[in-house]
Please model this.
Amino acid sequence: MRTPWLRTAALGTTAALALALGTAAPASAFEPVEIVHTERVQVGPYPMTVGFSEWPMRAMHSLDVTFMPEGGTAGRSGQVELLLDSAESEVEPLVRHPRKQEVWGLDVYALDDPGAWTFKFTLDGPEGRGEGAIQAVNVLEQPGPPLALSWSLSVVPVAMGVLFLVVAWRRMRPGDQVGTVLAT
Amino acid sequence: MDQLSRARTTTAEDAPARGGPSGGVGVVAILTGTMLSLFGMSWDIQWHEDVGPDTFFTLPHLFIYAGSAVAGIASLVMVLRVTAATKAGRPVDPAAGGTAVGVFGKTFAAPVGYLVTGTAAAVFLFSGLWDQVWHSTYGFDATIASPPHVALLVSVAFTMMGVVVTCAAAARTTWGRRGFQLSLAMLAFYVVVPLKSLDVFEGGPVNAVQVGVAFTTATALVTSAYFLRDVREFVVVGLVCVALQATLWLFSPWASEVYADSVGLPLRDIVSPSPDVPSALPLTLLPIVVGLAVLVAASRSRGWSPTGVAPLGGAGVGLVVALTMPFQLAAVGQEPPQALGTTLLTAVAGVAIGALGGFVGVRFATMLRTLESSAPLTAGGR
Model:
C-alpha cells in the first residue's frame, strides 16, 4: 500500500518540477529596455538625454529610466534626486542600468504618488560639477483598482491564518491548561 | 471541521505491519519544501539587490514556487492517505500530522498539521495568480510591500507554521523533535521577510520592523522553550538558526553571482553591502536562546509558574532584539545609524510586544503539547 502512494507522490512532484523547469528556459529571457520617450536636460556643462520605457508615467507603475550623457558615462559620476512638491524626495546614484549597460539607469522603478515631479541631477566629470533639472514631469494617477481594495484581497491569507489560530485557541483553551500540560 | 474519532489506536507493533500512514516521509517532504522556500526567498531578494532583472521564471522564483508545490503536494498526499486509511478502518498514527479533523463534512480526514500546510500552499498558488494580475497592471516590481507579495509571503509563513504543527505532533519521536527544531528555526528566520513590509511605517516614533521582529522572535523562542522538555534541545533551535543564518549569508550572494554569470548578466555597480535577508535576523539569537534556556530551566527546577515566567522571558527577548538590531543593521551596512530616541522607544515597545509574545508563546507550546500527547509512540520512536 505504502509504495504506490509514495511512488505517485514522487512522480507527481517530479512532474510538476519538470514542467516548471521545462517551461522556464523560453520564458526566462530578460526583456530589453525599450525607450518610448526622451527628454533633454543640460546638467552644467554636460548635455544628457533621459529616456523612459513608459510614457506618460503613472503612479506605482514600474518602468525603466535611462540617463545618457553625451560622450558616455566613463569618467563621470552623479546622482538624481526625484522630488514631489518638496514634500517627497528620493535620491538615487547614477549607476549602469542592469539591462542596458552602456547607460546609467533605474530599473523596474516606480514613483508612488501622482503629481508634478522634478528630476534634479548632479554630475561630476572632467569639466567639473554640473547641476540641472527636468521640471514638472507629470505622473498620472495609479492604474488598477483602488489600493484599499487590493490590500483587502491580500488580507485574506492573514485572516485565514488568524481565524485558524482563534478557532484552535477557543477549542483548546490553552490558558487553562498551561500548568498541567507543561508539567508532563 | 469536525473532530473525527480515531478508528483504532496505533501501537508500536501494528502501525508499520498494517501499512497505516506514518509521518516520517511526509515530514521530510514538507521540510524540504519549506527549506526550498526559505532559500529561494533569500536568494531572490539578494538577486534583486545585486543583479536586478526579473521574469516570472527566474531560478530563485522557481525555488519559491517549487517549495510551496512540494509542501502542498506532500500535504495533499498525506491527507488522502489518512482519509483512505480512516475509511478503510485501518489504524491512523496521529504522529502523522496530528489528530485528523473532518473537512467538507467528513469527506476528508485531514491531520491538522498537513491541513494547515496544504491550505497555506493552496493560498500561495492563488496569491501567485494575484501577483500575475498585479504585474500585468503595474509592471514587475522588486518591492516586498505590494499587496500580492504580502499575500504570498504570509502564505509561505503559514505553510511553515503547518510544518511546525506537523512535527510537534510527532515530537515523541526523535525525527519529530528534530523536525520541530528545524521547522521552528526556519519559521523564526523566514518571518523577517514579510516583516520587512512594515517599513512602510518608516519615520514613525518606533521602528515597526524591529517591533515585529521582537514579537515573532519572542513568540517562536518561548514556544519552543516550553514545548521541548529538555532545554538542551531548545538550545539546539538556536544553533540551527545560527547555522541557517550562516549558510544563507554565504549562499545568497554566491548563488546570485553564479546565476548572473550563467545567464550573462553583470552585477550592479552598487551591490548590497551584506546579505539582505540573513542580516535581518538578530545575530544575538544564540545568546538570547541560552539566556532563555537558563531562565526556563531555573523556573522548572524552582516550580515557578510558566504563565508568569514566559512573558518575562519574552520581554527580555524583545528588549535585546529591539536594542541590538539597529546597531547590527548599521554595522553590516543595511541601514544608517538609528536615532537614539527611536531606539529607546522601540526598546520600550520591544519589551511590551515581547511580553505579549511570551504570553502567546507559552500557550502555543501548551496547544502543541496537547497535540503531541494524543500521539502514541510508533515503531520509529525515540
